[in-house]
Specification:
binds SN-glycerol-3-phosphate, 31% helix, binds calcium ion, eight-stranded parallel β-barrel, alpha/beta, 229 residues
Length: 229
């Protein structure tokens, strides 16, 4: 079973910062999950929200700032210190040559960034880290696009509602990885997914009890803020 730090080792470090990614590697996570959005000048940056308000000392939409402007803000979130917004390139450069995985969530469920799927895959290929990258999205259209752009890639469909109807879409669109919210899974659902050879990744596992339950059920990937042994 693979353990991924949600937004890096975000239980202890400001989410989606290089510090959180490096510390996830140091403590022993197999990799990290992070969120990809796009700046005004088309740069791929790692941040969960469409706006910078919650996690930085600035305000406004990511897409309204250039990368240079975004780098002026402090993304320390609730911590002390200076933490700059990371680019996808910085993260991929960090993982290159290491035994460390990255789940790139393409954040297109609220804003349709033009061609973001192709730009992300091109960057991954350019740095030659394809073997270390899993893609996922809540946006079905992005999932389908990613599969078309890179048919060999791992592409997961993220869901946080309508389990049964979205489960049906996996077959229809030949999606082989499912990323439901952790609380949706029980033995029957895990068996049902396994019968169709679907990889299962769950998020965001909140405590050791749930971690043990899901491990026992046999899920493939656990995504959590905290590192569970
Ligand atoms: O990829 C799993 C999880 O990160 C999805 O939810 O809102 O934390 O991006 P969210
Ligand atoms: Ca995410």
């Amino acid at each position: 079973m693979i353990k991924l730090g949600h937004r890096g080792y975000s239980a202890k470090y400001p989410e989606n910062t290089m510090e959180a990614f490096v510390k996830a590697y140091d403590i022993g996570f197999d990799g990290i999950e992070t969120d990809v959005q796009m700046s005004k000048d088309g740069e791929l940056v790692l941040i969960h929200d469409e706006k910078i308000n919650r996690t930085s000392n600035g305000k406004g939409f990511v897409r309204d700032y250039t990368l240079k402007e975004l780098k002026q803000f402090n993304f320390a979130y609730k911590e002390k210190g200076l933490y700059l917004i990371p680019t996808l390139k910085e993260l991929l450069t960090f993982i290159k040559g290491k035994e460390f995985l990255v789940n790139l969530e393409i954040k297109t469920d609220k804003i349709q960034y033009p061609d973001i799927e192709k730009k992300v895959v091109d960057m991954v290929k350019q740095l030659n880290v394809n073997q270390q990258v899993f893609y996922s999205s809540f946006c079905l259209e992005s999932v389908i696009k990613l599969k078309q752009i890179d048919p060999k890639a791992y592409v997961g469909y993220l869901i946080e509602n309508q389990y049964n109807s979205k489960r049906k879409l996996l077959k229809q669109y030949h999606i082989t990885a499912f990323h439901p919210k952790y609380s949706y899974l029980n033995q029957i659902r895990v068996q049902d997914l396994k019968k169709d050879q679907i990889k299962i990744a769950v998020w965001t596992v909140p405590n050791l009890k749930e971690y043990e339950r899901l491990k026992e059920l046999g899920v493939d990937i656990i995504i959590s803020n905290e590192y569970f042994k």
